[in-house]
Amino acid sequence: MCSSDLSGGPGLAERYESRNLLGRGGMGEVVGAWDSRLDRDVALKRLLRQNQGETAELRDEIRRRFEREARITGQLDHPNVVPVYDLGMGVDGLPYYTMKRVSGRPLTEVAGDGQVSETRRLQIFLQVCDAMAYAHSRGVVHRDLKPANVMVGEFGEVIVLDWGVAKRIGGTDDSTGGHRRSEGRDDDLTEADAVLGTPRWMAPEQASGHAATPASDQFALGALLYFLLLGKPPFEPGRDVMDRVALGRYVPPRMVRPNLPRELEAIILRAMAIRATDRYADVPALRNDVQAWLEGRPVQAMRYRWWQRLGKQLVRYRKTVRLVAVVAACLGLAAVVASRVHVAAVESEQARTLEAQRQATGQLLDREMTLGLLHADLGLDRTARADLARADGLAAAQAPGSLLTRKLWYAHGWLEHR
After folding, report:
1. Residues 365-388: pLDDT tens digits?
2. Are 214 and 205 in contact, with CB atoms under 8 Å apart?
3. Which of 122, 207, 245, 358 has a CA positioned 20 to 30 A from the CA of residue 196?
C-alpha cells in the first residue's frame, strides 16, 4: 500500500505515508504510517478488498461494521482505550481510520515474562478493568477481549485494542442470523462467518449463541486474570472448545497453580461463573475486589471466618501495629527512665537534707563542747559534764571518726584528767 492509495480528499494523499505492516486479519489490515501533517507515527487500519464472490449486501455489512468500529472506538475517550484520530475513504472506495500507534508488548508476551511480578500483573489487570468499566458506562460491549487485544506500552500504559466486533448495549447483535460457530479452530482469529468473538476467551452465553452483555466482558476479564496469574488460558484449543466454553468446563485455578492465594482464585471463579447472574454486579465490583487484595483487605468473593478477617486487618495495618508497638515500647522505656530519674532526684534531695541536718547538729555540737570546756575552766565541772552530755546526743548525727566526734572524745578525756 502506498500513500496515493489513501487519497480520499484534498491533501489526504500527502498526509499519510505507509511504512510497515503491523497486522492483518480476515477483513482488514493495520499498517504503520507517517502523518506528515502532524509529523507523527500513527497506526492506519483499512478494510481489505473482499472476494468477488461476495454479495453486495455482505460487502455493505462488512463496511458498516468497519465504520462502526472506528466510530465506537473514537467515542471511547479513555486513557486505556486506543484513541482514533481520523476516519476516511481511500481512492479504491474502501474506508480506513487512523489511531495512536502503541509501542510495547501484547499481554501474551507480558504474561510469559517471569520478570513481571504478580503485583505488576494485577496492576495491569486493573487498567484493563478501567477501560472496560468506562466502555460499559458508555453503553459499549467489547465482545472480543483477549490477551492479543491488550497492549502494555513502553512506559507502563495499558491499552485495549481492536474494538472491531464491539456493539452498543441493546443494539442489533450481528453474531446471530446464520453465522456458524468456529469449532476446531486453534488460532485466535475472529471471523466474519463465526460467532463473534474468540472461542477460548468468550463467555458461555456467547458460545451458546446468545447476545453478549457487560457480564460477558466480565467473564473475559476473569479469563484474562486466569491467564495473567497462571500463564495459560482457561480453555485449551481443540475441536470441542466451543462446547467446553458453553458448559464452562475449565481447570480450577489452584489445580493449575496450588500456591495461588485463595482470594485470587475466588475472584477468578466469581468473574468466570457459568451463569452471568452469579458473576460480579459489574466490572467496578470486580476491580474493587482485586484492589482490595492488593491492599490486604478482605475480598467480597471470599468467605472468611472471624479470625481470618482479624488476620487480614492485622496484615493490612501491620505498619500501624508496628508503629503502635514501637510507641508503646518507647513510652515504657520513657516511664522506666522517668521513674529512675525521679528516684535519683528524691535520693539526691534526701542526701542534701541529711547533709544540712548534719551541718546544723555539728554547729550545735561544737557550741555545746565549747560551753563545756568554758564551764570546766571556771570550775563548774557539773555544768561542764551536762554540756558534754548534750554534745554526746548531737554526735550521733555525725559520721563516725569525724573531726567533731574526735574533738568531743578529747574534751571528755581532758575534763576527767585535768
Report:
1. 777 777 767 777 767 777 777 877
2. no
3. 122
Please answer whether residues 263 and 225 qualify as being in contact, where contact means their C-beta atoms are separated by less than 8 angstroms. Answer: no
Average pLDDT, the chain: 82
Q: What is the pLDDT of residue 344?
A: 85
Whether 59 shows a pLDDT value over 50: the answer reads yes
* 128 alpha-carbon distance from chain centroid: 14
List the catalytic residue out of 41, 77, 86, 144. 144
Amino acid, res. 408: L
3-state secondary structure of 23: strand
Question: Position 294: which residue type?
Answer: L
The residue among 264, 270, 235, 265 whose CA lies nearest residue 251 is 235
Examine the residue annotation and report whether 144 is marked as an active-site residue of this protein. yes
Query: Is the pLDDT assigned to residue 181 strictly greater than 70?
Result: no
Give the C-alpha separation, 136 to 141, whole Å: 6
> CB count, 10 Å around CB of 206?
26
d(CA 112, CA 213): 30
What is the pLDDT, as a whole number, of residue 311?
64
- 8-state DSSP, 30: E
CA distance 261 to 229: 10
Q: For residues 135 and 147, give the distance between their C-alpha atoms in angstroms, rounded to a whole number.
A: 18
C-alpha cell at 181: 460457530
Single out the residue of 27, 18, 100, 107 nearest to residue 63, CA to CA: 27
Reported as a single tens digit per residue, the pLDDT across 296-330 is 888 998 887 655 555 666 666 666 667 777 778 88
Beta-carbon contacts of residue 167 (< 8 Å; ≥ 6 apart): 140, 141, 143, 173, 174, 212
Q: Are 271 and 221 in contact (CB under 8 A)?
A: yes
SS3 78: coil
Grid coordinates of 48: 481489505
Q: Which residue has the higher pLDDT, 79 or 171?
A: 79
Specify the pLDDT at position 333.
Answer: 86
Residue 185, SS3? coil
Q: Pairing relation of β-strands 158-160 and 167-168?
A: unpaired
Radius of gyration of the chain (CA): 45
